[in-house]
Amino acid sequence: DFARHWQAEFPGEPAPRMELGSVRAMERELERCRRHLRRLQRALAEERFKVGYLEAALARAPPP
């Protein structure tokens, strides 16, 4: 069921392997996914900050 939904959302991409055999296994997967999402959100925020900083610095820089 998960693989079918994944393929509908991300055609051509293989579904990631997840342990979904029990409620406890699904809870562990959910926590793992949440931790991963938090790390990715932090990395995205850091990259956005760097982009904004560099764009502002370049806008202030005199032309070469």
Automatic annotation (TrEMBL):
Coiled coil: 23-50
Sequence intervals crossing the membrane: none
GO BP: signal transduction
Domain of life: Eukaryota
Keywords: Coiled coil
Stretches assigned to the Bcr-Abl oncoprotein oligomerisation domain: 1-60
Keyword Coiled coil: yes
GO molecular function: GTPase activator activity; protein serine/threonine kinase activity
Record protein name field: BCR protein
Gene behind this protein: Bcr_1
